[in-house]
Amino acid sequence: MAFRRRAKSHPLFSQEFLIHNHADIGFCLVLGVFIALMFEVTAKTAFLFILPQYNVSVPTADGELIQYHYGLKDLVTILFYIFIAIILHAVVQEYALDKINRRLHLSKVKHSKFNESGQLVAFHLTSVMWCLYVVVTEGYISNPRSLWENYPHVYLPFQVKYFYLCQLAYWLHALPELYFQKVRKEEIPRQLRCIALYLVHIAGAYLLNLTRLGLILLLLQYLAEFFFHMARLVYFTDENNEKLFNVWAVVFVVTRLFTLTLYILVIGFGLPRVENQALDPERGNFFSFLFNNILFRMSVLLLVCLFQASVMWRFIHFQLRRWREYWNEQSSRKRAAAAASSKQQAKPLKRDSGYHENGVVKAENGTSPRTKKLKSP
């Protein structure tokens, strides 16, 4: 008991120590893995953390090609990149967002939202550029039929597998960051739902061998999210500037239409026509085997349509609320301006004594008022 009391009071076990030094702890662990690469005894173990595992040689017309598939050792690699994500999160926060926050003097609520949007802008911009490079170099955009041809896509190129491992690591690192960043209790359920949705979709595409479709969908999703969080950052710096929200609205609607079209094209028409759909667990075609059943295929499409409809409903509700606030603000400004002008008109006008005749002020006895002579200095 005495040891427990001493341990709890020790700074290494305190909450403040973990919050302010979690990035330093992660940096030390990452540095230890890189140091392990220098020694032959530990180098093999260190490679488990840094590089994707389960590489195989696939024969092609031009020779052998090194590709990868998934397995339990991927969890070790994901753990390593979780610490990398924590370090990068702290770097962006300390060297970019904190400096901007000191200049803006935001409230606590806006400060929290500004930090969230700032982190996600950096992540979404990096992911969009990376994902676009992958889909272009792999030919998924120039040849849309490759999204379902030769399914299941059990073997992945290095850059595709590495991209998925890093994506899973980022969204898993967001869970402890809720604690480290002292996120308000009201915001935690919303952020947990967002993290869970990303993890389910990314892990589902990775484990069900739908990585090609998942890449295109992530590209569309991250593009819309980038414009949204960028619009929030601009709004926090200048509350009268809402032009980027209009750009985000257009991009969001376009990406939703493309997303729904891709789902229908790949799941409704592409995968059911794949050859060799007999159940073979070694080839990982369980998902393709299920598409022989039209009931399963229609159920998946129905779930996708319902999910996209719920997303569009939240978007429409957000836009209606935003427009309502805008028009209420405009009407209140007009009422204030009208009240100010009516007050000015209600003020009594001062009149000169006497009356006017031919533009000349006359005294009450009919004579013109005498001009007052100015004394010479």
UniProtKB/TrEMBL annotation:
SMART domains: TLC. The keyword Transmembrane applies. InterPro entries: TLC-dom, Translocation_assoc_membrane. It is a multi-pass membrane protein. The keyword Transmembrane helix applies. One of its GO terms (biological process) is SRP-dependent cotranslational protein targeting to membrane, translocation. Residues 337-347 have a biased composition (Low complexity). It comes from Falco tinnunculus (Common kestrel). Residues 112-326 form the TLC domain. Pfam families: TRAM_LAG1_CLN8 (PF03798). This is Translocating chain-associated membrane protein.
